C-alpha cells in the first residue's frame, strides 16, 4: 500500500523537523528511533536499580531495628556514620561494647538508644 501523504513532523529524539510519509511516524530516521529506544531502556534500568537500592536500605534498617545486639557495621548504619566513628566512641567510652574476639564486637541496642536521651 503506497501513500502520497507528506506531513511535517518534529522528531521525538533529535527535535529536528522532517517530512513523514505516514501519520504514525515519530522519528526522522532509524538511527533516532534506535537511540531513543536505548535511552528509554537505560532509564528504566536505572529507575529499577534505584528502587531496589531503596528497598534494600529500608529492609536492612528494619532488620537492624529489630535486633537486640548489633555489630559495629550495623550500629554505623543505624547512626548513619562510619565504622571508625563507632570504634572511636567505643575507645573513648561513649559507647559500651563487648569484644567477643577479634572482629567480633557487639553493642547492645539499648546503649545506642541511651545516647540520645536528654540528661
Task: Give the tags.
single chain, 119 residues, alpha+beta, Arc Repressor Mutant, subunit A, three-stranded antiparallel β-sheet, two-stranded antiparallel sheet, 4 helices, 51% helix, rod-shaped
General description of the model:
The protein is α+β, with helices and mostly antiparallel strands and 119 residues long. It has a domain at 67-119: Arc Repressor Mutant, subunit A, CATH 1.10.10. It has four helices and five strands; from the N terminus they run ββαβααββα. It has helices at residues 30-66, 72-79, 83-92, 109-114, and strands at 7-10, 17-20, 69-71, 98-99, 105-108. The strands form two sheets. Strands 3-5-4 form a three-stranded antiparallel β-sheet. Strands 1-2 form a two-stranded antiparallel ribbon. α2 crosses α3. The longest helix has 37 residues, at 30-66. The protein is rod-shaped. The termini are far apart. 7% of the residues are buried. The mean pLDDT is 89.
Pattern of helices and strands: EEHEHHEEH
Strand order of the largest sheet: 3-5-4
> Structural class per helix/strand content?
alpha+beta
DSSP helix count? 4
CATH architecture of the domain at 67-119: Orthogonal Bundle
Largest sheet: 3 strands, antiparallel
Beta-strand level of the residues, as a percent range?
Answer: 5-15%
Determine and state the CATH class of the domain at 67-119: Mainly Alpha
Distance between the termini: 84 Å
Amino acid at each position: 500500500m503506497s501513500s502520497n501523504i507528506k506531513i511535517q513532523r518534529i522528531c521525538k529524539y533529535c527535535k529536528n523537523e522532517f517530512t513523514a510519509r505516514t501519520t504514525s511516524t515519530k522519528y526522522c530516521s532509524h538511527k533516532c528511533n534506535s537511540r531513543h529506544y536505548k535511552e528509554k531502556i537505560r532509564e528504566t534500568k536505572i529507575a529499577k536499580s534505584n528502587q531496589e537500592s531503596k528497598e534494600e536500605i529500608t529492609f536492612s534498617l528494619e532488620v537492624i531495628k529489630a535486633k537486640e545486639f548489633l555489630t559495629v557495621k550495623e550500629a554505623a548504619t543505624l547512626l548513619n556514620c562510619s565504622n571508625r566513628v563507632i570504634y572511636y566512641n567505643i575507645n573513648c567510652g561513649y559507647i559500651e561494647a563487648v569484644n567477643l574476639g577479634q572482629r567480633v564486637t557487639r553493642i547492645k541496642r539499648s546503649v545506642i538508644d541511651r545516647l540520645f536521651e536528654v540528661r
